Amino acid sequence: MRKPTAICSISKRWERWRVSRRRLSAFLILMVLSTEPAFAGPSPINPDFADTAILAQLPNVRVNTAQPPSSPEALASQVHEYIRQARSTGDPRFIGYAEGILSPGRRIG
User: Fold this and answer.
1) Which of 40, 69, 92, 103 is a Cys-bridge partner for 74, taking CB atoms 3.0 to 4.6 Å apart?
2) Is-contact 108 72, C-beta < 8 A?
């Protein structure tokens, strides 16, 4: 007895095509995703500037760290304000100001 091969061979061919199509799709997606970061690099650094050139200018901030607050509550409030300003402006100098008034050599009231 002969087995019908037409139905089996068609289904095998279709199955092979379907699997290879999935692999091809996955490969193409992987290639697109892996080549994208190659084009998204930072711009080159230009080292051609004078030693006296000003590259960035920070805003002037007047902070009175010479006289720390007299009470612990006022000190905590001032430190909290400096940290809030550092977070909102992205300026790390305010973290330094907060650390400066919290230095262990200072006495409160």
Assistant:
1) 69
2) yes
pTM of whole model > 0.70?
no
Contacts 24+ apart (CB under 8 A), 82-89: none
Length of the chain: 109
Looking up tokens 């690099």, which residue turns up? 41
- Three-state DSSP at 92 gives coil
User: What stretches of 1-109 show up as alpha helix (H) in DSSP?
Assistant: 6-39, 72-89, 93-101
Q: What is the mean pLDDT of residues 37-44?
A: 67
* Distance between CA atoms of residues 34 and 31, nearest Å: 5
Interatomic CA distance for residues 20 and 17, integer angstroms? 5
